[in-house]
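can u pls check wat happens w/ S-adenosylmethionine
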Amino acid sequence: MSDQIKSRERVADHGEVFTAEREVNAMLDLVKQETERVDSRFLEPACGEGNFLEEILRRKLTAAKKRATPPRRKKPVPSEFEKQSVIAVASIYGVDLLNDNVIACQKRLYEIWNTEYEAVCQNEVDERCREAIKFILDRNIVCGNALTLKVVDENGKDTDEPIVFSEWSFITGANLQRKDYRFDKLLAGEYEPTAKEKPRDPKTNDQRNLFDLTEEEPSDEGEFLMSYVADYRRIQSHGE
Ligand SMILES: C[S@@+](CC[C@H](N)C(=O)[O-])C[C@H]1O[C@@H](n2cnc3c(N)ncnc32)[C@H](O)[C@@H]1O
């Protein structure tokens, strides 16, 4: 079998044919600017082992290094790169029906992040940050059915549990906020205000995103699930 196909059965049962690097790059180049922004959000609803997500993360980490490098300096500041790299990972989402693909994808993204982390931060690496990244990947790369929007069991069968995604954002200093949303409600547009209704952020004058509005008006029907705040290196010890 090739790098793109694991078995004939998997192709027949799940349409599992992985995309080659050349096509991945060509497709991502169609949205090049977004792939080179540390905090742009990407969701791949049938992510496989993460061929697209890997390249997105690589591009974002390059952008994170640039962002963490002060003017007239050649190297990124390790503490700043650490935070920027957390944003890079936390803005990447994936869903796949098959548990082995999800685990492979999480592992692959972790290894890519960790290699850059060690290269940039060297003796300043922090085990708590590694654990936080594993936790974020565990929440962002979900074993689920992108058609029914349900979490699936180890056999790829739907459970009753809806897929939930977390939005991660730095608020003050090292504090990272996690807000959980049901994927079905997000897709149904129930969180999304029309462009006309969207308020502008006074600081940036940008129209605020769908998550921002929900923060102001959390639903009383339970679609907006929960919000947690913690130092980003300890985000995994909150709210579970
Ligand atoms: C054609 S492969 C593409 C994988 C990856 N996007 C890539 O380009 O390398 C399709 C993937 O979709 C997954 N898949 C099939 N049906 C799905 C569903 N209903 N929900 C989520 N994933 C699904 C398969 O397990 C497989 O990994």
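The pocket of S-adenosylmethionine is lined by residues 14-19, 44, 46-48, 51-52, 95-98, 101, 145-147 (CB under 6 Å).
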